[in-house]
């Protein structure tokens, strides 16, 4: 792997030329003077690896830079930018680049969440940088702040809205009263959601980002398999309406937190819809925007907000990494390595501790509330508040219920997931209980 | 200046042992294992320079580390942390450290805003790092994101709430209807404001931060002398009440923006109170919190939110810089240097272009609105909206006015500061105009 002498160009290879790749190419090709000044040497885009040379592309990408031989391209680069996505061949190409001594910038969240340690070890063995700001929350600088700015602090909790599609869907349900299918269809029509929205709606995308954030925040390896995952498919228009009545909005959150001492605890990492109080900064995140809320011991609460997807925003994050990596390539040295010194145990899903709001349809007669409360007490689940809304007391017409049914809205104190599951089963077996209509976690209070 | 071999400790000198210095010492002395793992070598606090050895201090700082000989301390450090504040002797000590080859981490906004170029040149000449995350917005990672994450993007505008004291004061005026003096007294009682609140209330602190943010965002040297500055002393309870009625809150903003092409424009940097629409993310920043809103060409809108002051939050930012600087000290290389490649002209205050809301007390009779509108037209100031509130139409008792007076609320399109000043003078000379009660800029719409 040849190196660049001072002043001679740094050779950049681009793997992938989709929406993000095209914007990365545009940045390198149309801002050469700025980037050169910041790096201290020119950046030369030496090639763009694509699957099919014949595909029609934005004219900003010169045809003579296109190649289908990604391996040969990697071998002649000082810096490799991977924006092709997926596990293979991205993984093999990144390993090849790192082992050959090239710095790598990637936006590949799935690969990092599944195979991160392998990549970090290869980078460390070669003494080169592996940067991935664009892998989480698009344009929002969040990887660098957690990895570097908070390197002298202890992070307690990360709460992130890291999937723009589901935030758009939930926002439309909240503001327009749409049901899930209608809101998903609207997101698809606007290009926010894929034809098959599974990766977003079922929380897979958010889970990959949760794994990456947890690894950074807690200096502990967390893979996507360790992330408890629940998507938004079960969220109904009724859930959203009830959330509003109790002063909440429903958000799909990536949650990573330390249970126990901040320097010797256990890590819980999960993705699920949650009730967020309207007064919490995350509640104000609208449309397809992303935001990550971080609580650190010294810094206190921090929030980072911006666009989580899209070609230009993601390319902005990639190019920031390119400048830093190129600068180090030029001046020597290596950035922060993978930090896994805390190495906390990662808790299984059922050991997570959260607050819950449980909505129960019960017979509207005296004594039912006491019965339900009794079951919670037996299971050691402590009640924060109970709100009983009987049919006659229902203020809103759209909540008018069948005669003789009341709604119980039970909000618990923090309880283990496993205790709650057992409690819900026991409550639903009570004779006057007609239906458990929803069980939602409460976060951010 | 001796260097550290791999594994042997990096020697850290701490200059200043006030609220922030004490927390930095605590971080280094009580988290040694974490920091060592992240840096790759132990950090040894070799001394703490203070003015008076006899002052009572937090017991976390060992007495035998204290010294009044700051120069000798600097000379035996690999890394110097300056948290003493003020121009001298901080400036001389930082220059001494840099010239001797030590990396420097500083939280000194006043020094950077007044003498930044001198310090950056010394750092660059010695090939060492000068880091200053804590100098702007306390715990909020904002220097590193603008300097590094956005290094491949073009920033168009920065709008920051960067002074917690004035945000607290304005927030109390907004939520409790206090007048300025009452709110300042409350801030003083809580320790948010100094006995002499000039630096905060008159915008000097925010102006220093504006200069630093503008320099970073636009790769252009901006000193505090080039920042147009207006504090919040003129803001009345009436201004705050009227702001609410027009869907705004009043915030003290640090504004830095490019006028003209984003890669070949002119820079306007200013600090002033402004009307911010309640729907803007900055409007939700409460109490003494800080937030910085950044608009970049590629990334789009970004916001960074958190605590802008206080010992532990500021120390968190300092320690993040310490880890990065120590890591580079160990592995070689240098971070990003001062970036001044764009070198845009900085506009004088009167050339700034903003929208205004002007509140005018006029005689309540037909034709006055037309007269005022005519004066604006003559001066080339385009009107966005005019709202006329006559005494009889005033809904709120506290707005009940003397008989025969109406309020005109004129919101302009973007206009040059100089044109607006001339316009206001001409309007106030009109016969039916009784008083110009306020002229406030409108930002973030």
TrEMBL record, chains A, B:
Q: For NADP(+), which residues are the binding ones?
A: 15-22
- Enzyme class comes to oxidoreductase
Instruction: Return the EC number.
Output: 1.1.1.3
In what residue span(s) does the ACT domain sit? Answer: 357-445
- Alphabetized GO MF terms: homoserine dehydrogenase activity; NADP binding
Q: Which sites bind L-homoserine?
A: 194
The record ties this protein, via CDD domains, to:
ACT_HSDH-Hom
Q: In which pathway does it act?
A: Amino-acid biosynthesis; L-threonine biosynthesis; L-threonine from L-aspartate: step 3/5; Amino-acid biosynthesis; L-methionine biosynthesis via de novo pathway; L-homoserine from L-aspartate: step 3/3
Q: From its record, what is one biological process in GO terms? A: threonine biosynthetic process
Q: Which cofactor does it need?
A: a metal cation
Q: State the PROSITE patterns in the record.
A: ACT (PS51671), HOMOSER_DHGENASE (PS01042)
Q: Which reaction does it catalyse?
A: L-homoserine + NAD(+) = L-aspartate 4-semialdehyde + NADH + H(+); L-homoserine + NADP(+) = L-aspartate 4-semialdehyde + NADPH + H(+)
Q: Which residues bind NADPH?
A: 109
Keywords assigned: Amino-acid biosynthesis, Methionine biosynthesis, NADP, Oxidoreductase, Sodium, Threonine biosynthesis
Q: Which residues form the active site?
A: 209 (proton donor)
Coiled-coil positions: none
According to its UniProt entry, the function of this protein is described as: Catalyzes the conversion of L-aspartate-beta-semialdehyde (L-Asa) to L-homoserine (L-Hse), the third step in the biosynthesis of threonine and methionine from aspartate.
Family in the record: Belongs to the homoserine dehydrogenase family.
Q: Quote the protein name from its UniProt record.
A: Homoserine dehydrogenase
- State the organism of origin: Xylanimonas oleitrophica
């Amino acid at each position: 792997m040849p190196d660049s002498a001072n002043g001679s160009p740094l050779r950049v290879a681009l793997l992938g030329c989709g929406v993000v790749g095209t914007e990365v190419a545009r940045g390198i090709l149309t801002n050469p003077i700025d980037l050169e000044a910041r790096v201290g040497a020119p950046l030369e885009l030496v090639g763009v690896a694509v699957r099919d040379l014949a595909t029609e592309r934005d004219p900003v990408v010169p045809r003579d830079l296109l190649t289908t031989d990604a391996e040969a391209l990697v071998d002649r680069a000082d810096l490799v930018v991977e924006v092709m996505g997926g596990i293979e061949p991205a993984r093999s190409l990144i390993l090849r680049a790192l082992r050959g001594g090239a710095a790598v910038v990637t936006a590949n969240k799935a690969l990092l969440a599944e195979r991160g340690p392998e990549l970090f070890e290869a980078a460390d063995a070669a003494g080169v940088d592996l940067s991935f700001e664009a892998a989480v929350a698009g344009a929002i600088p969040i990887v660098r702040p957690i990895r570097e700015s908070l390197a002298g602090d202890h992070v307690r909790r990360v709460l992130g809205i890291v999937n723009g599609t589901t935030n758009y869907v939930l926002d439309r349900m909240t503001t327009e009263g749409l049901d899930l299918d209608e809101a998903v269809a609207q997101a698809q029509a606007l290009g926010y959601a894929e034809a098959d929205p599974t990766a977003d709606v079922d929380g897979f995308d958010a889970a990959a980002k949760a794994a990456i954030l947890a690894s950074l925040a807690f200096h502990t390896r967390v893979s996507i398999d360790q992330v408890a995952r629940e998507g938004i498919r079960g969220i109904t228009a009724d859930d959203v309406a009830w959330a509003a009545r109790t002063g909440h909005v429903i958000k799909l959150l990536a949650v990573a937190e330390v249970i126990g001492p901040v320097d010797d605890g256990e890590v819980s990492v999960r993705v699920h819809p949650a009730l967020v109080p309207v007064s919490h900064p995350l509640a104000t995140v609208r449309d397809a925007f992303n935001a990550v809320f971080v609580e650190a011991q010294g810094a206190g609460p921090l929030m980072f907000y911006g666009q989580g997807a899209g070609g230009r925003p993601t390319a902005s994050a990639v190019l920031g990494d390119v400048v830093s990596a190129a600068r180090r390539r030029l001046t020597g040295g290596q950035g922060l390595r993978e930090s896994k010194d805390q190495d906390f145990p990662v808790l299984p899903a059922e050991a997570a501790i959260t607050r819950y709001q449980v909505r129960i349809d019960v017979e509207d007669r005296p004594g039912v509330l006491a019965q339900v409360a009794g079951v919670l007490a037996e299971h050691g689940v402590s009640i924060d508040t109970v709100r009983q809304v009987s049919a006659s007391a229902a203020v809103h017409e759209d909540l008018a219920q069948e005669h003789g049914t009341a709604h119980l809205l039970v909000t618990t104190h923090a309880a283990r997931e496993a205790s709650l599951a057992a409690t819900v089963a026991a409550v639903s077996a009570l004779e006057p209980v007609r239906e458990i209509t929803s069980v939602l976690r409460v976060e951010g209070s």
